[in-house]
User: What shape does this take?
Amino acid sequence: MYDAFDGENLRWEAVLKRDPAADGRFYCCVRTTGVYCLPSCPGRPHRRNVFFVATKGEAARAGFRACKRCRPDRLAAGSIEDRIAAIDWTWIGDGLDHDGFASLGRLLNDEECASLAAAYRADRDFRSTVTMARHGFGAGEYKYFADPLPPLVGDLRARLYARLTPVANGWRERFGDDKRYPTDHRSYRAICAAAGQARPTPLLLSYGPGDYNRLHRDIYGSETFPIQVAILLSEPGKEFEGGEFVLTEQRPRMQSRAHVVPLAKGDAVAFAVNERPVDGARGVYKAQMRHGVSTVHRGRRMTLGVIFHDAA
Assistant: This one.
């Protein structure tokens, strides 16, 4: 396929023109400042100080940070496949192993966030609605998508599962479990169905003023994939205030540790559903993980939850 920005000369020409069509096709690393930029960045580096990389992950691995003028870290361009492929999954795996969670960066653009948030009003897309206060879960509401999932949600679920499976299988191995998760999500759904879990679990969550989500684990049966993903669809400070995403970890004979994960609109975070392996003096033990959302003070906070195991 023809690439209008294939080659050093064509890429530098795009930088000189500040061509927005090149944004997301490649990134510029500037040696003198230690930042990476979009081709359309208003900065004017010298050619001798610039080299090009294909992805944000490649720039980060080379030791460059995102430019604060053009904010390449806030760009969500290309197909979902391209965006997920551009993530540094080695770094994500390390974060999940070390902390039980890892930020994936911006995964959805503003239009996609708005489209998903607007879909909340279309009851035909969902199989059930849960009012949290009715069950003691907190305050707010969420809806589970019905099959077939919306194309965007289905694509995210299948592609993120494939990238997270190596981490999940590594955790099983460390726990001494010889079972392995299949590499494709369709095969994993068949395993869930055989366990009596055939209802899809991706969901949209809606929080208004005073709403919150108590610390919990999303377990729907005996079959559980150990990692899930949440994507924030609203802009903190503009569309809502409060509503921080919170994780807690409980290790044996220790007090709980809390993490507050900062997210911007379109940002995704991968995190442990229930428990994760931790190396101790006597071998590997299980750290218990829970997640929730603090009280929303103003506005409306919308979130897409991507859970990979199905429900009974």
Q: What stands out?
A: The domain at 8-75 is CATH 3.40.10.10 (DNA Methylphosphotriester Repair Domain). Helices lie at 8-17, 56-61, 80-85, 89-99, 110-119, 132-135, 151-174, 185-194.
